[in-house]
Please model this.
Amino acid sequence: MVKYSFGTGRRKSAIVQARVFRGSGKISFTNNKTVNPLIIEKIKEVLTLVSKEKEFDITLIVRGGGEKSQSEASKLAVARAVSKIDPGMEKTIKKEGFLTRDPREKERKKPGLKRARRAPQWQKR
Model:
């Protein structure tokens, strides 16, 4: 039986599912053909904070969003999973703000407007 911790991260329309295993520090993507270096950089931020860079193997499933939002979502997912493995690290991770989800989403377009709030230019005649 494989022992791992699971974490989900969301940002805008990106959703990342992370599985964190005890291992040698390998990061792999289940469904991405191209590896985004920004995602790896953000994940290493979390691991260096708790000084466990070479202790966990991480498997990610990345869906939706752009590069930036995928990287932020992956950071949240890994932080949640790591804090479940060792609850002693949760205080450090939370203090740095890695367990806080960024709730900002794109506002929907309203009828009669060009975007969410942008009205057509007013004409006098």
Summary: Helices lie at 37-49, 67-85, 90-96. Residues 67-85 form the longest helix (19 residues). The two ends are 75 Å apart (CA to CA).
